[in-house]
Amino acid sequence: LEQELDAARKLETETNDLLAKAFIASVLSHKSKLCKNQKQYDDSILFAQQSLEILEEIARIEESVETERQITGVLVNLGELCSIHSDKEKHVSAGKYLIEAVDRKRKLADRTDLDRDWEQLAASYNHLGSFYKDRGDFAHSIESYQQCISIHENLYREKDSLDYLILLQTSCHNFAVLLKDMGHPEEAEAVLPKVVNRIRAHKSQITSAVDISCNTMTYKELGLVYEDMGKMEKAEFWLKKAEREQRSVVNATAADEAKIALADLQIALGQFYIRWYQRRLPGISAPNMINPQKTPAEVFNRDFALDQGELLLNSGLGNLLSVSAAQLIQQKTARQ
């Protein structure tokens, strides 16, 4: 990258060529992402800002849709970088970058009316919604997520495409998590079943491990929403469905990402059973403390919940350990 950057800078100095400038901006943007992956956030921000300055210069000389796409992409990257930086002052800059990205992407999408630009606008609203959520600005977070969902709804309605359904599912999932975390499970429940029913209608088309894993995360969230509403049987149904379908992905692919997702679901389901056990028998803290007021059936349910909780927690932790062990072996082999 350094050699390519030096060559491009030399060419740009000699010719003042826009293509050379664009190439420099592209390399700087790539360096920013590499530093971001290595958690070198100061360097990552510096390279992104340098890339943005060059792209803005190009845009002033020659207006281009592609340059505008690159500019908004860098703005989103800068917004994400500043929002996760330990320096709290940079968090203010994060909001400014993300808001500017949304404004410019909105103008670009209105101008081109291309699906890819509407998709990117929705993604920018999603980033902005997450930013506001992390800052506790729930009103603006709700507004941003609703804008994201609206765009995905329109794309799905126009194309009836599975790809757009998955995007809609993701945006609805994020919005439902926000509502649940705000203490509004009933509103979250109103968001998720609609997209879940659409997913079921496309079930025969959903074959990739990534799409199935995306579904299981939505099922998990729906289960947790029902738990917050006190509808424990419905919660159990959706959490078990999530764990079961993710286990089928692991059986089919054996990929580490799938195993980690399964472990997450097993732990979530195990914790749910423990909470259910505690909820059914308030004040009882140990499995051998029998409440004489309970019927034999309820005592059995209590023991089942506790046993299932422990079993699933152990399974989830076991899956995480197996992935970690396999990765350590791979690293050791690579070093050798």
Give the overall form. Answer: elongated
Strand elements, count: 0
Arithmetic mean of pLDDT: 80
- Which residue ranges are poorly predicted, with pLDDT under 50 across at least 5 consecutive positions? 282-300
Overall structural class, as computed from helix and strand content, comes to mainly alpha
Share of β-strand residues: under 5%
Distance between the termini: 27 Å
The SSE string, one letter per element, is: HHHHHHHHHHHHH
**How is the biggest beta sheet arranged?**
none
Number of helices: 13
Radius of gyration: 24 Å
Helix content: over 70%
What would your notes on this structure say?
The relative contact order is 0.05. Helix 2 (18-37) runs antiparallel to helix 3, helix 7 (138-159) packs antiparallel against helix 8 (162-181) and helix 9 (185-201) packs antiparallel against helix 10 (209-228). The protein is 85% helix and 0% strand. The radius of gyration is 24 Å and the shape is elongated. It is built from 13 helices and no strands. With 336 residues, the chain is mainly α.
